[in-house]
Design goal:
The chain has one domain. The protein is globular, with a radius of gyration of 18 Å. Strand 1 and strand 2 form a beta hairpin. Helix 1 packs across helix 4, helix 1 runs antiparallel to helix 6 and helix 3 runs antiparallel to helix 4. The protein is about 55% helix and about 5% strand. By secondary structure, it is mostly helical. It is built from seven helices and two strands; from the N terminus they run ααααββααα.
Length: about 200
């Protein structure tokens, strides 16, 4: 899934706080948004492994949210919904395509790494690849409740996420061609600094 789709999932998860502590909803929503994108900060260093913890995030989120219910304040809500969104991100990556630059080819059997199990979880390919039409459609669907519930900054961020998703979905495959062109022109002694999946796909 696109990072923006994960962010919209995080916003929607944070919105659950409206049912228990509406005054803390803004904190929960922004924490959910941050947690939704956080795992992808490993994009260029062990992507879907370094910061992706489908099991451990889930355990930590359960404990943190239980604590937030017992001691509801901005800090406990922020931690709980951040971890919940990070867990949702890590788990949902298994529903998408494999870890490759051209996941529409269906050649990779690595979706997300489970540190708990010590192995890669294979892709389900329910969403064939990040930026696929169904990925964009999911993002739009997830955005609708937030557009209804909020105005101001949160609504603006949701609209921006949808717009970015649309542009990325249109450019997803052409971007691979650009990457192929660029990597093919990198001096060989510099390839060690390029993520493996780029080199693996484009350098023979």
């Amino acid at each position: 899934m696109m990072a923006t789709t994960h962010a919209l999932i995080g916003v929607l998860l944070g919105s659950a706080s409206l049912f228990v502590a509406p005054e803390l909803a803004p904190v929960a929503v922004f924490a959910g948004l941050a947690g939704g994108v956080f795992p992808d900060f490993d994009l260029y260093s062990g992507h879907r492994k370094t910061l992706h913890f489908p099991v451990y995030y889930s355990i930590a989120a359960t404990a943190a949210l239980a604590g937030a219910m017992l001691v509801p304040n901005p800090w406990t809500f922020a931690l709980g919904f951040f971890l919940l969104a990070a867990a949702a991100h890590s788990v949902s990556d298994a529903f998408g395509g494999g870890l490759e630059l051209k996941p529409w080819l269906g050649q990779s059997e690595r979706a997300v790494y489970s540190h708990f199990h010590g192995q890669w979880i294979p892709p389900r390919r329910w969403i064939r690849y990040d930026g696929a039409p169904e990925d964009f459609a999911l993002g739009v669907t997830l955005a609708v409740p937030s557009l209804v519930l909020y105005d101001g900054t949160i609504q603006t961020l949701v609209v921006l996420a949808v717009m970015i998703s649309g542009v990325y979905a249109l450019l997803r495959k052409p971007l691979v061609n650009i990457a192929e062109w660029l990597v093919g022109r990198i001096p060989s002694h510099m390839l060690a600094y390029v993520p493996d999946r780029f080199v693996g796909d484009f350098v023979q």
